[in-house]
Amino acid sequence: MRDLERAFAEQITSGEFIGGSSVRRFEEQWALACGTPHAIGVANGTDALELALRGLGIGLGDEVVVPANTFIATAHAVISTGARVVFADVDPVTLLVTPASVTEALTPRTRAVIVVHLFGHAADVDEIGRLARQHGLFLVEDCAQAHGATWAGRPVGSFGDAGCFSFYPSKNLGALGDGGAVVTADSALASAIRQIADHGRSTTDRNSHVVAGRNSRLDATQAAALSVKLGHLSTWNEQRRAAHATYQRSLSGADGVRLQQEPAGSRSVYHLEVVRVVDRERVEARLRAAGIATSVHYPVPCHLQPSMSCAAEPQSLPVAEVAASQILSLPMFPGISDAQVERVCDVLLDSVAVITTRVGGDLTGVS
Ligand SMILES: *Cc1c(COP(=O)(O)O)cnc(C)c1O
Question: Which atom of ligand 1 lies at the shortest distance from residue 167's CA?
Fold first, then answer.
């Protein structure tokens, strides 16, 4: 809190509100954290995705593969470039896209694949990266829920042609407002993104606009706040992992409830703590009655959203559709106590026991 106040005061005194040293400093710190040569601050996570795709030259006539179960922004970013979305179904256990599910979504028009490290779990970016290279496709990682997660020991965001982050306040690394970043090893892509985000300005003449760009900037005050908060990211992620371990202990072996496990290869950062239950609405209601807030990420898979009706072919993606009716996000934040987690689990197990006895639902076939 003190550190944030000091950072803001310095920012106000400096008079630098757009660009400047705070943005450069955070970009350097974030590139280092992600193990990539470049980080480009942008206005939000959706812009990070759109600008990465545009920087890669994706647009009208192209198709981009997107997981069916992600926040809708992943798909909307594709639509903004003029490209079409083809959704990929997900693995029934990890709820992440796999090489097989991505392969099914490929057509001769596919130019890129977006992998989403959903809920803070890293997807298999080694295998999917190999697949993308084989087919001459770009790989873009949506890391908006996975700041600090690793796959095979390497930070997410460093595997694809571009890694896209959101710093929306509730993310693992959140600003005090909107913010986003693209990380990449590709210098030409980094320059292209900077140019699009700065009104398409020529690098040599400020008054010459060489592409039809736009304005997408990370505010200097947000960059200053992010530098302060970045110092705490690994501690906060460890606290999330410890809370997950408590959930795991309390729920292991229980009937009628399945915890999203850490996939082999992923060191997950538990942006969300997701379980699957039958008769979710009743479980939610019982938790709510006990004063426990839950939510659902996301109740409607992207391919069934009205906004997709003219931007993607109708698709049937059974794993994502079944999962959407069963997933429930339990309380998860850095610093949640063991006692709080145990109370959530007690109420959850009671609710599930009552409900499964009554309706006899089961979770077989999905996990
Ligand atoms: C939050 C989020 C985004 C969008 O980020 P904004 O900063 O809100 O634009 C994109 N993809 C995923 C998976 C997200 O969780």
Answer: 7
Q: Which long-range contacts (CB under 8 A, 24 or more apart) does 157-161 make?
A: 157/34, 157/36, 157/183, 158/34, 158/35, 158/36, 158/183, 158/185, 159/125, 159/126, 159/129, 160/115, 160/125, 160/129, 161/52, 161/56, 161/186, 161/189
Backbone angles phi, psi at 266, to 5 degrees: -95, 140
Q: Say if CB 178 and CB 197 are below 8 A apart.
A: no
**Ligand 1 within 6 A of CB of 50:** no
pTM > 0.85: yes or no? yes
Q: What is the pLDDT of residues 125-160, one digit of tens each?
A: 999 999 999 999 999 999 999 999 999 999 999 999
For the Cβ of 120 lying below 6 angstroms from any atom of ligand 1, the answer is: no
Report whether residue 142 contacts ligand 1, using a CB cutoff of 6 Å: yes
Atom of ligand 1 nearest to the CA of 70: 13
